[in-house]
Design brief:
The complex is a heterodimer of chains A (176) and B (237).
Chain A lengths: L1 H29 L2 H17 L10 H16 L30 H9 L4 H11 L5 H8 L3 H21 L10
Chain B lengths: L2 H10 L6 H9 L1 H21 L7 H11 L9 H23 L8 H12 L12 H8 L5 E2 L7 E9 L2 E8 L6 E7 L7 E4 L4 E6 L3 E7 L2 H14 E2 L3
Antiparallel strand pairs in B: 1-8, 2-3, 3-4, 4-7, 5-6, 6-7
The chains are: A mainly alpha (176), B alpha+beta (237).
């Protein structure tokens, strides 16, 4: 009985600690509120059933993200979420960030731009921004090289910046 | 490590703690400026990524977990009882939200409205003195139009994200200070409801496109503005 109660307590702590981040991650990859919730619920159900396999509390977060990634792949009907040979992306221009100043009004524009980023770029970026993971950790989770992840997250940021530069957020502009 | 190397590294991970990168940034004004701009972008990106999480998500997950452990219920009748109570509680909450019974404390939309106003207090200081045409150029995105607001100054009008939709944030003056009007397309409510926190009073009104909130510090002025808007806004139900 004590073991079961401890498991329930652990599970509740996991839900309270990580359901928000997992939901946001799922939302940005599927872009549907209900589907994102369903995926997160399914993730936790699978986690509950396999809770005895979680031996290190510090790895719980990565473990949950891994389960969710599998759920996303399942729902999206893909074997893997990495479909494109991104290691062959063109040479990037890291100077793209020069000469711009983002203010509060840009949050919505960036929110919209995030919806346009391809999943293969978006996913590692979300793991970094929402999950708080470093490139090498993301590389391990996604089973690709650290260099590939660095390229993808850099490319994601550059795409976002380019979207903001090419498509000024007219709907967000203040009336002058 | 040259400038290009440093920029590639921090573009891949703006929070990177690398001694060589740090040393370069200290000695290179251009890269330091680049890092600052990227930091600002990252902060905005962080905020943009934080979509609102459905209220009660954690409770629903825990409820489902309870319901999937039926095989343990015979051993632990207390768990079954708790699950039934939790299910009932969630059901009652869903009825409240569905029917718009917003007088039972703060509903999610009420919280969103008050949070939005409190997060953007700086707009209360705006004095742009906009025309009705300028205001309507913002409102037309949501299918609304205001005929006129006689005797009032429009201090600010801008589009803004409200939950997962794009809404409009408008500030007008009143005898008791600035008042906020939030147009919230897609946020449908069953009936008119009141909102209140330590500073602000307000009302949420159903519209054809969703709902509209009026928030200010003086309840009498809110009622007055609501009467005016009901007359002046086209498409307001």
């Amino acid at each position: 009985m004590r073991i079961i109660n401890r498991a329930e307590s652990t599970f509740e702590a996991l839900v309270n600690a990580y359901s928000t981040d997992l939901y946001r991650y799922a939302y940005w990859l599927c872009k549907e509120v209900q589907l994102a919730e369903d995926l997160v619920q399914e993730t936790f159900m699978r986690a509950w059933k396999a809770l005895d396999k979680l031996d290190k509390p510090e790895s719980a977060r990565a473990w949950l993200f891994t389960i969710l990634r599998r759920e996303l792949s399942r729902y999206l009907g893909k074997q893997k979420m990495d479909l494109v040979g991104l290691d062959s992306v063109v040479e990037d221009d890291p100077n793209l960030f020069h000469g711009t100043d983002l203010g509060d009004v840009e949050v919505w524009a960036l929110h919209q731009a995030l919806k346009k980023i391809e999943p293969q770029y978006l996913e590692p970026l979300l793991l970094q921004v929402i999950g708080g993971y470093r490139c090498e950790e993301i590389a391990e989770m996604m089973a690709v090289s650290k260099g590939a992840i660095m390229t993808r997250v850099s490319r994601a940021r550059q795409q976002l910046r380019q979207l903001l530069l090419n498509e000024p957020p007219t709907k967000m502009r203040l009336v002058k | 490590m040259n400038c290009q190397d440093v920029r590639r590294l921090i573009l891949a991970d703006p929070k990177l703690h690398d001694h060589a990168v740090h040393l370069h940034l200290v000695g290179c004004a251009e890269c330091s400026h680049f890092a600052d701009e990227l930091g600002s972008f990252e902060s905005t990106l962080n905020r943009a990524s934080k979509v609102e999480v459905p209220e009660g998500l954690a409770s629903r997950i825990l409820l489902r977990q309870c319901l999937t452990t039926k095989h343990n219920w015979r051993k632990r009748p207390g768990l079954a009882t708790a699950a039934v109570f939790l299910l009932g509680f969630v059901g009652i909450l869903s009825v409240f939200f569905t029917n718009g019974l917003d007088y039972f404390g703060s509903s999610s939309l009420e919280q969103v409205v008050l949070q939005h106003v409190n997060d953007e207090l700086h707009h209360l200081e705006d004095h742009k003195n906009l025309s009705v045409q300028q205001l309507n150029s913002v409102l037309k995105e949501h299918g609304n139009k205001i005929r006129a607001l006689p005797g009032r100054t429009i201090n600010y009008a801008g589009a803004c994200p409200i939950r997962n939709n794009q809404g409009a944030h408008v500030i007008v003056d009143s005898a008791s200070g600035p008042m906020t009007i939030l147009f919230m397309p897609g946020e449908f409510v069953g009936q008119r409801s009141l909102v209140k926190d330590k500073r602000f009073h307000g009302v949420i009104i159903p519209t054809e496109q969703g709902s509209m909130a009026i928030v200010g510090e003086d309840p009498l002025q809110i009622e007055q503005l609501e009467r005016e808007l009901r007359v002046q806004i086209i498409n307001l139900s």
